[in-house]
Design brief:
This protein is α/β, with parallel strands linked by helices. It is built from 17 helices and seven strands. A five-stranded mixed sheet has the order 5-4-3-6-7, with helices on both faces. Strand 3 and strand 4 form a beta hairpin. The radius of gyration is 30 Å and the shape is elongated. The two termini are 49 Å apart.
Length: 404
């Protein structure tokens, strides 16, 4: 094997020696010429296999079928248009597998288009990019056709079976603009990010443009149940309207934990700029308290200190206190895991970079395609369990005895 590699490297060195980049990869360069010759040799090989004899061989006489010239075809590749010739047989029975009938694009071309689309480029952007980089003329309709092939994958992914138990599920939403009836409106994409028993993140599904509320979230949770999720230990949310009621109906044993980071952000909306740092420090005494009693004392202190200037601060925490206090039942290393929806917010920040470039989306399907492709790319980085997962799982096994 090593000897073959050495010979291949030696041959490659001989081919590229003394050549400029233009001579290697430019129009009419070595790479394109080698690619054309590869297609020619491979297709000729397919024809030989089909007929049972090589070109000009005497055993082909009176076999009832023979070679009958070639047909030119232009293939779109990820490096530009490529002119190739497809062999024909006299009986019209030859169907090549390398380049199938009616095929006008290579798989690497489709992969290049999908990669650009996943990074937030519009069909017009991709058209301009391919034209500028590879001098290939591609219509927006063709690009849409390529990206539409993903929709079947999206449907299969959205309905795939899930694990029976997820210790943690984060629920949140990102907002983007979508054209509807000639108007651009804000729409939400709701995301459910699960942490499985091994501590790895997994996006369970996405839902586009629904009206938030208990009825909507109950539908989402019932969908998860239909896909096999029997239990969720902790649901981390950012105060999404109607979610506590929905989780109570679908998974009555699940703890609902509000995202503390969102709680702090929402509180600071009511605070003038000059007092924000001080209020933020005081709020930290609440969520960093060692137990519920200390947290309640800290909340009383915040209320006493800021009630006159900013009454809504303490009021917002008291109105949600039931879904804040589960945090205090866990040791510090587990609080890091559940006290914020950072796990899903990290993914959302990357999704916003993708969606922000597009301005607005024409349809809900276009949103699904972009989000799905982006998530597939982002999830390749989810190669490790979340931090302190073993400690968290051991604690969960005690708190939620018999459920994991």
């Amino acid at each position: 094997m090593a000897d073959k590699r050495d010979k291949a490297d030696k041959l490659l060195d001989e081919l590229i020696e003394g050549k400029t980049p233009e001579e290697l990869i430019g129009e009419g360069g070595l790479l394109r010429e080698l690619t054309k010759r590869f297609y020619k040799r491979a297709l000729e090989g397919e024809m030989t296999h089909h007929l049972g004899y090589p070109a000009n061989a005497p055993e082909g006489i009176n076999t009832g079928n023979s070679r009958n010239g070639k047909t030119s075809k232009k293939l779109k590749t990820d490096t530009g248009d490529l002119e190739i010739e497809i062999p024909r047989d006299r009986n019209g029975e030859f169907e090549p597998q390398l380049v199938k009938k009616h095929q006008r694009r290579t798989s690497d071309f489709d992969a290049a288009v999908l990669s650009l689309y996943a990074r937030g480029m519009t069909t017009r952007d991709i058209q301009a990019h391919l034209s500028e980089m590879y001098q290939t003329d591609v219509s927006p309709a063709l690009i849409s056709a390529v990206t539409d092939t993903v929709l079947d994958d999206v449907k299969a992914w959205q309905s795939r079976p899930l694990d029976e138990v997820y210790p943690i599920v984060y629920l949140d939403a990102i907002h983007l603009k979508m054209r509807e009836s000639g108007q651009v409106k804000n729409q939400a994409v709701y995301l459910a990010l699960g942490v499985n028993m091994e501590g790895y993140k997994e996006l369970l599904g996405l839902w586009v443009g629904e009206s938030e509320g208990s009825k909507f979230w109950l539908g989402v949770l019932n969908e998860l149940k239909n896909r096999g999720v029997k239990d969720i230990l902790i649901a981390c949310v950012d105060g999404l309207t109607g979610f506590p009621d929905a989780i109570e109906a679908a998974y009555p044993k699940t703890q609902v934990q509000l995202c503390i980071v969102h709680m702090v952000r929402n509180s600071l909306k009511f605070v003038s700029w000059k007092h924000r740092k001080e209020v933020a420090r005081d709020l930290k005494t609440i969520y960093s308290a060692p137990n519920i009693e200390s947290a309640e004392e800290a909340l009383d202190m915040v209320e006493t200190k800021w009630q006159k200037a900013y009454p809504q601060v303490a009021r917002s925490w008291r109105s949600c206190w039931t879904n804040v206090i589960p945090l205090f039942g866990y040791p510090p290393e587990i609080r890091k895991v559940i006290y914020t929806t950072n796990a899903i917010e990290s993914m959302q920040s990357q999704l916003r970079k993708v969606t922000r470039q597009r301005g607005s989306f024409p349809t809900a399907d276009s949103v699904r395609k972009v989000i799905y492709l982006a998530v597939q790319r982002i999830s390749k980085k989810w190669k490790r369990p979340i931090q302190d997962w073993i400690a968290a799982l051991n604690h969960f096994s005690i708190v939620f005895e018999g459920r994991i």
